[in-house]
Prior knowledge:
The protein is mainly α.
Amino acid sequence: xxxxxxxxxxxxxxxxxxxxxxxxxxxxxxxxxxxxxxxxxxxxxxxxxxxxxxxxxxxxxxxxxxxxxxxxxxxxxxxxxxxxxxxxxxxxxxxxxx
Length: 98
């Protein structure tokens, strides 16, 4: 909920800021510049939190994939069939055959 929380908090702040700036019905240049800077602060925070969440999700998925990774055999069906037939006949299959 990082990006949503930042934008929700920023919208509440924006209404408070708007009320404070316009209560004297005049906008100073300092207030205008601060309002302009606040926009880039909001965009930077939201972008940073999005990147942080993306990295943490990748790390979580990476760790989860390593734990739940099934064993994969890289062999064709014919190769596996031949090994199984040899085992049924009583021959030992060498690791090179698999």
